[in-house]
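Folding Task

Wanted — backbone structure
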Amino acid sequence: MSRGALEIAAAVRAGVLSARAAVETSFARIADGNRRWNAVTRVLETRALDLARAVDAAVARGRDPGPLAGVPFGVKDLFDLEGEVTTAGSMVLAADPPARRDAALVARLVAAGAIPVATTNMDEFAYGFATDNAHYGVTRNPHDPARLAGGSSGGSAAGVAAGFFPLGLGSDTNGSIRVPASLCGVWGLRATQGRLPVAGSYPFVTSFDVVGPFGATLGDLRAAFEALDGAALAPVAASGLRVARLGGWFMDSMSRDMADAMEALAAHLGVSAIVELPEVARARAAAFVISASEGGALHRDRLNDRAMAYDPAVRDRLLAGALLPASLIFRAHRLRGWFRRQMHAAFAGVDILLAPAVPCAAPRIDAPLIEIGGEQVSARANLGLFTQPLTLAGFPVLSLPMRVPGLPLGAQLVARPGREDQLFALAARLEADGMTALPRENADVA
């Protein structure tokens, strides 16, 4: 089993492990496993080794290189990396000039001593839940190579699950961190919208876009978030947190395995209260409309000139979004404001809400369908069934890997805006109680 971020950083800062060795181990794991998983699109060897030398030199001089000293991390290929072309998973941008500076989140991790080692695969322009990319191929799930890793940040999640690196950066517009974290059995965080800077990340839906980390362990995820946020989280007593389940929409359309896992999680916490949000189906529809319209508007001019260069599945959705009438878009935004108020009201007597992160375990790549309401529907569009409605409100959500037999399943912990401290406190209790999966538990990796 590979080392976690906290273990690597402690060893590097103590001088018992070099940052160069940590980076070279990451390269070796990528070289050994990426043909199987297709999580990585580029290895950043020159830059990573230069940064590793700087970290090791700081340690040799008795200077602290940062809380994440020498920790390798993967970067979803919609974040700018100085000197690299940001493709956002598309050949459409492959001839663009290299980025002049790092994206804000990349820069913050580097300032904390972490080292970017690779760019990771994604759905083209972050439009999908599968990481099935017409240009770069499909990312396979490290727990079963016949299955999807989820998306759109699937390369980062799969890279963490495969042990390529203990941390990854992703983006979450409608569930693009939460879905692959759940399917790959790792930890993920969609922070409060606006808390972490999106500067230097290629946009998809400006109204919804959130950027954030994946971690092999909860401790790794917390350390990454604190480095990204610029401050340590305040301690919170998990025993004082009031927890309820989201009902209605969030209790339907689950596989039997997911329903059993959610019942076990609720029973362990002694949760009997159920909170039902109104008009969740309409909220999800509004998220679809806003996503399609903003994505279509962003790409309209380029679609006029180079439509055939796009992934066909993405191109068709963007073209449809560009044609949506203004009246429908206006109604979707108005519903968004109303639904956000309903979310605030739902927390009147509750601190944390529990919900499934996905309807089921990872679908097979050769049959990318899931069952919703008794019908087989596209996984690429519908794996975000439980994440997408929550997008409208912009609340923080932590995706945790539940301790289940077989393929991974994840749960969402939802808190009020700005209360990531409560999410980590409850997650830490569940981890201590053995209710969460161990790093790479049951993963099909060496």
In short: The chain is about 40% helix and 15% strand. The longest strand covers residues 115-120. The radius of gyration is 20 Å. The first helix runs from residue 5 to 14.
